Write the structure tokens for this entry.
Amino acid sequence: MDSALAALRQLTRYWETFRSKDDPHTSPAVAALEAALWTGRAARVHVILDGTPAPGVLGAAPHELFGTVILARVTASTWQRLAPFTGPAPKPSRHSGRGHVIQQGESHETQAIWMTDADVVTWLTDPDDPQS
């Protein structure tokens, strides 16, 4: 889900605008997302969320619904909100593609593949090119 916070706000606002008095208070779309998140990996349900999980929309502790959190170049307050049990936030790296993967309360510094759009096109169209 791309731009999750904005999407959840829009879904909630839409539902508040168009729901009738007999409809449930929570948007069915938001309820379905919550159900998918709570179903979790045990049922082979994987949700990728881009953005901050919003406590006001997804309940009290939405960050607990995600088994893996990937953070890169975030502020100390964002780190404490999304990875509170891993200790203080590391200093942001100026190295492109560098980030941290947080799983089971541990943070692992990680280097992601950093490619331009042209690099991706070359890699996909000519995988044998040694430059890609």
In short: The chain has a mean pLDDT of 79. The first strand starts at residue 68 and ends at 71. Strands lie at 68-71, 98-103, 106-111.
